[in-house]
Specification:
Helices cover 6% and strands 54% of the residues. Strands 1, 13, 14, 17, 18, 19, 20 and 21 form an 8-stranded antiparallel sheet that branches.
Length: 290
């Protein structure tokens, strides 16, 4: 590394709410005022950790549409059953990742996994929304089901490792296919572990602390749960020292320098495109679940 990215700002949870009846989430952006600074990433919800009693009815979110972006679900505890109007269906188990490209439009539902529902337990997941550039917003939807076995694990020294979900780290490439350059790394650190992560000059970078505590670049502390450190575009790395056992998501990507217009589950470039998305969904053009 030639120079470290500096810590621009630190943010806590911007809002808390339930998504359906299965996902109690803490939103880390954009509700805290960080929007364009995290492009190409649009939103991050941290669901749980929360214990759910056993039930005979899966909790979750009923049928709903998306257009113009991608949803990325990273499972830590519990499981989710997914099905969509493209004919895709499956279960996201701990360690797995679901990368769904809504693009021109898809309808899906997300429910607690049937076995998890029956047994009960602790539920913990992250859902990340990733923007698409204008030229790809109306492309064909696609679905990437990524199991934990497909995700390379990079050793970063004693007590430190990163799962490379997207992008590249120390020669290991993540399995997720992306439309623009980005890195999504799931980093686990033991107390006292020290790492220096290489990052790209000019990319937007956020460090999402799910839980634990770290010191960044030998100075700024990030502790607790659901915290976001926004780093500068200038610089090509960051030094991290864990003060306790830590789970940290590293999000870094090339900014998409285009207008963002959003309305609920739709993210386009103009208000007119949002209105068209609503009409297309109402007309059934994004499909239906049988």
């Amino acid at each position: 590394m030639n120079s470290q990215k500096s810590v621009v700002s630190i943010h806590g949870t911007g809002s808390t709410h339930w998504v359906g009846d299965g996902f109690p989430v803490r939103n880390l952006f954009p509700s805290n005022g960080v929007g364009a600074q995290m492009s190409p990433f649009l939103m991050l919800d941290y669901a749980g950790p929360k214990y759910f009693e056993p039930s005979d009815r899966p909790r979750g979110v009923e049928e709903h549409p998306h257009r113009g972006f991608e949803t990325v679900t990273i499972a830590y505890q519990g499981s989710v059953d997914h099905r969509d109007s493209g004919g895709h269906a499956g279960t996201i188990a701990p360690g797995d990742v679901q990368w769904m490209t809504a693009a021109s439009g898809v309808v899906h539902e997300e429910k607690h996994g049937r076995e998890f529902t029956r047994q009960g337990g602790v539920f913990e997941m992250v859902q990340l929304w990733v923007n698409l550039p204008r030229k790809d917003k109306m492309s064909e939807p696609k679905y990437q089901s990524i199991t934990k076995e497909q995700i390379p694990v990079v050793a970063l020294g004693e007590g430190a490792a990163a799962r490379v979900i997207a992008g590249e780290l120390n020669g290991a490439r993540g399995p997720a296919s992306t439309f623009t350059p980005m890195n999504v790394w799931d980093v686990k650190l033991a107390a006292g572990a020290k790492v220096e992560l290489p990052l790209t000059e000019g990319h937007n970078t956020g460090l999402v602390l799910l839980r634990g505590g770290v010191t960044l670049n030998g100075g700024q502390a990030l502790t607790g749960e659901a915290q976001l450190a926004l780093l500068s575009q200038k610089g090509d790395g960051v030094a991290i020292e864990a003060t306790e056992e830590t789970i940290l998501l590293v999000l870094s990507g090339e900014p998409i320098d285009e207008p963002v217009a959003s309305y609920g589950p739709f993210v386009m470039n103009t208000r007119e495109e949002l209105q068209q998305a609503v009409r297309d969904y109402q007309a059934g053009k994004m499909g239906r679940l049988s």
